[in-house]
């Protein structure tokens, strides 16, 4: 498989395997279509995060440039997927973020991004969506355990966040 990617000019094989300019461009295109499809599937068709993520994995390979442009127009030029991850080629402006597990007890935070590593954790998108840990939502750290688990308050509700998630969930903290 790697040799085929090299033959197609998508990777260079040396001490490490790296994407070529052509490979990076193709990867960014697939990520852009995936995140745009997720945005369309959640915002327009009202699919759950997890269903949209699965479907977008199929759509990312068949969306043409014409359809991609039409979806972008229809959605008003979104800059992030529903999980807050930037859409390549958009006007996304990165905020200064930190991991949730670095926020001290009693501090308020705003969820900004749910990284892809959490998207692929079985059941994680369903859980985060069900407890309203969503980009743009504010919370307060109520407690943090030594092993990394945290209790936060989101919309007046106590939510448990495990260590794996608290190490990856990106937030902003007000000064």
TrEMBL record:
InterPro entries the record matches = DtxR_MntR_Metal-Reg, Fe_dep_repressor, Fe_dep_repressor_sf, Iron_dep_repressor, Transcriptional_repressor_C, WH-like_DNA-bd_sf
Iron dependent repressor metal binding and dimerisation domain location, by residue?
20-88
- GO molecular function term, any single one: DNA-binding transcription factor activity
Please provide the Gene Ontology terms (biological process) for this protein: negative regulation of DNA-templated transcription
Indicate what this protein is called per its UniProt record. Unannotated protein
Q: Which organism is it from?
A: freshwater metagenome
